[in-house]
Amino acid sequence: MAAALAAREAGVSDVLLLERDQHLGGILNQCIHPGFGLHHFKEELTGPQYADRFARRVREDHGIEVSLCSFVVKLTKDRELSYLRPGALEEVKAGAVILATGCRERTREMIPIPGSRPAGVYPAGLAQKMVNMEGWIPGTEAVIVGSGDIGLIMARRMALEGVKVKAVVEIQKSSRGLVRNVVQCLEDFGIPLYFQHRIAMIRGRDRVERVDVVKVDDQFRDLPGSGFSIDCDTVLVSVGLIPENELLEMAGARLDPKANTPVAEKVNLTSIPGVFACGNACKVYDLVDWVTRDSELAGRMAADYLGAGARA
Amino acid sequence: MTYDVVIVGAGVTGASIARELSRYRLKVLVLEKEAEPAFGVSKSNSGIIHAGTQNPPTSLKGWLCVEGNRLMREEIAPDLGLNFVQCGQLVVIFDEADRPGLEKIKKEGEELGVRGLKLVDRAWLDANEPELGPEVKAALLVPSAGIVSPYRYVYALIENAVKNGVELRTLAKVTAIARVQKGGFYVEASGRVYETRFLVNAAGLYADEISAMAGAPTFRITPRKGEEYLLDKKREHMARRIIFPMPTAESKGILVIKTSDGNPMIGPTASDTQDKEDLSTTDEGLAEVLRETRRLMPTVSKSDIIAYFSGLRPVSGKDFIVRCEESAPGLVNAAGIQSPGLTAAPAIAVMVAGILKERGLALAPKEQFHRLRRRPAHLFQVPLEETRRLIEKDPAYGDIVCRCELVSAQEVRDAIKRGARTLDGVKFRTRAQAGRCHGGFCTTRIMKIMQEELGLSALEITKRGPGSELIKDDRK
Ligand SMILES: Cc1cc2nc3c(=O)[nH]c(=O)nc-3n(C[C@H](O)[C@H](O)[C@H](O)COP(=O)(O)OP(=O)(O)OC[C@H]3O[C@@H](n4cnc5c(N)ncnc54)[C@H](O)[C@@H]3O)c2cc1C
Ligand SMILES: Cc1cc2nc3c(=O)[nH]c(=O)nc-3n(C[C@H](O)[C@H](O)[C@H](O)COP(=O)(O)OP(=O)(O)OC[C@H]3O[C@@H](n4cnc5c(N)ncnc54)[C@H](O)[C@@H]3O)c2cc1C
Prior knowledge:
The complex is a heterodimer.
Chain A: H1 2-9, E1 15-18, E2 34-36, E3 45-46, H2 47-60, E4 64-67, E5 71-75, E6 80-85, E7 88-93, E8 97-99, E9 103-105, E10 121-123, H3 124-134, E11 136-137, E12 141-145, H4 149-160, E13 164-169, H5 179-186, E14 193-194, E15 197-203, E16 210-215, E17 228-231, E18 234-237, E19 241-243, H6 246-251, E20 275-277, H7 288-311
Chain B: E1 2-8, H1 12-21, E2 28-31, E3 48-49, H2 60-80, E4 89-93, H3 99-112, E5 118-121, H4 122-128, E6 138-142, E7 146-147, H5 150-163, E8 167-169, E9 174-179, E10 185-189, E11 192-201, H6 207-213, E12 222-231, E13 242-244, E14 255-257, E15 265-267, E16 271-272, H7 283-296, E17 305-315, E18 321-324, E19 331-335, H8 341-358, H9 384-393, E20 400-402, E21 407-408, H10 409-417, H11 423-430, H12 443-454, E22 473-474
Parallel strand pairs in B: 1-2, 1-11, 2-8, 4-13, 11-19
Antiparallel strand pairs in B: 3-7, 4-6, 5-6, 9-10, 10-11, 12-15, 12-16, 12-17, 14-15, 18-19, 20-21
Helix pairs in contact in B: 1-5, 1-8, 2-8, 10-11, 10-12
The structure holds flavin-adenine dinucleotide (2 copies).
One flavin-adenine dinucleotide (FAD) binds at residues 18-21, 26-28, 31, 35-36, 71-72, 100-103, 125, 128, 149-150, 153, 244, 247, 279-280, 285, 287-289, 291 of chain A.
């Protein structure tokens, strides 16, 4: 939304905003905790409030056509897009394309955690969506893998819903998350945080029953004799985000194979002229305020590109 | 009411037998303990339709495999609309000294009736399988091998059998069997008793227990575990065929496998276990699979892995057990169906029908047998133009639920209409939740569609049946 609005302000007359979901706002909709906008708006908002400030401006702007439930399935290097929506397969050609497709979560399978594959193992973001958007409480006793911000915030969220959070298990020596989150989400709730530990086994046939935890050394090798078990029915996996850049890949843009981010000399650029990537699709951000700042820049870069194209 | 035949187990063996018997004027019932068919061994295997090579030429499983392969290619796949791909396989050697071994496999395969076998040298391999490792010296090319989606195969068989009048009861675990004086059996499953003239035991890992319940404790099943690791679709073209090493006495070895959905797979391991429910994967299994497959294909990397699972082969000795039992007249066992059971199933079914006929069951063909099944539409299998036609016909094909695998709301609803009752059932039929994000984005949406279609509360939705509920409390 920030990119669309900025492009309009920079003089682009006709913007099409495609969103797969039934509403605008992306991941912000499920982040009902405060902590958004301290830099951009100089006040503390929740995720949905932050998103709504942009959604309102987008709706009022007649130069932005919003198409919801619209899933982009194809992008070519010549900026031809195909998207599906209920009732139609649409094809459009754009002067410039901005990809703001966000991230998906890394999963249990990518670490990978051995053991059985019962119900009760969820990516933390899915659990967040269940709790915050559907009112569904996924378990009664939980262990959280990974101490990044999402893991920390979900530890607190589950504790607030009366779920017993028995541990946060982190393989590194320290947390990747914000210090304020470690304090506010774990220490205030008495949730133990185990650094340099990993889950060695998930147990349970139909539903999670227990996890085996083991301490590791600096090379991530298991320390013999350090293992212990925790009874639980839920494991939330929060082990990082990966930019969703499958469309860029399809168009033939160069991607960093490890981070799945576009390879280019400047933020928001891709190796294809006229195709931009911003927000979490460009790189994983901590704070939404910086997503907004850089996405506005992306909108202006696209406007510049269109201007240059028109003159050429 | 008395059934002509009760089949215990809705895996590929039971489903094939059900479909075969549905050609005839018979009352047939299938009892399955799980929430859906194909939740036993038949869901977790390599999905290979073997050619028949790598089996002793005198074995039952050898010739049933060759015949099953033929039936799949010529009848089952076209009739039931299966996505069978005849990609072929290679058995490779790392040492010239193994060449006589390859020749032996070729000769034994030919004795079993496998066609088109050919030894190929390194130059051929360089041209046709460029990612093979430098250690590979030569190979046996086996063109009739192929791949299929194992669970969609079972669903197709069961759907077609039910269309032809077979009854299916799920969540029906057989716990007791008694002989009827005048012949036949009473079969008790989940609190109900069914009477039948003939009993077919296709209970996979539990076939020994069923046979004993019916009065024939003649064999034991020992599970042999196999761990498999699926790779990202981005690696789809690393191998064009299924790549095998030379087999050992215990197994066909650890392979580079193609799957019908595009993701390559590596595995399986082979280790005996005592626990019929132990489907865990292990650090050791992963290390072994990576080590072995890297000899075949050095470009395989741990970071390509997107999913993994274990399956248990129901092993009893070296061969299948397909026979009637003198100590329990009316019982036919289709047991010990280890690999290549997925391939052999249609041939096992014909053999079981033959045994039943010998034992006095009249096989009178139905006036109308619906041989064909319409293939469900899957967006991920069709080109965009076909997608456009589907959406124009039915708008919900444009309502995308699963973004990683491109699955629409209409496909999820269709899967439920065809029998999916669990999240895994939806996944196996449609691929929704089977991609990179493992359901991170689409699980709640699928749960809501299941609520609408099945009239369930959120608390009742399970991953794979009772005990695997997804959520514990609904605060809305
Ligand atoms: C749990 C959590 C807690 C956070 N907490 C804070 C916090 O306290 N403070 C803070 O400042 N920041 C926080 N952040 C970070 C911040 O919210 C995000 O970095 C930011 O919202 C990302 O915005 P985005 O637009 O790049 O991505 P997203 O919000 O993910 O938006 C991407 C959009 O693209 C759509 N899309 C993707 N592919 C397609 C396609 N093919 N076709 C059509 N549409 C598509 C998606 O549906 C989605 O709506 C948090 C993030 C998370 C996940
Ligand atoms: C790792 C691995 C890889 C393999 N790869 C291949 C391959 O590539 N190609 C190939 O041809 N074969 C392969 N196989 C072998 C193949 O998977 C099996 O031979 C086949 O699936 C066996 O099917 P089944 O129907 O006999 O057993 P199952 O699928 O287990 O079916 C038995 C059914 O009976 C039900 N049941 C059990 N007890 C009861 C009860 N008391 N009451 C009611 N129902 C009951 C079970 O729930 C189950 O659904 C592989 C096997 C493994 C483990």
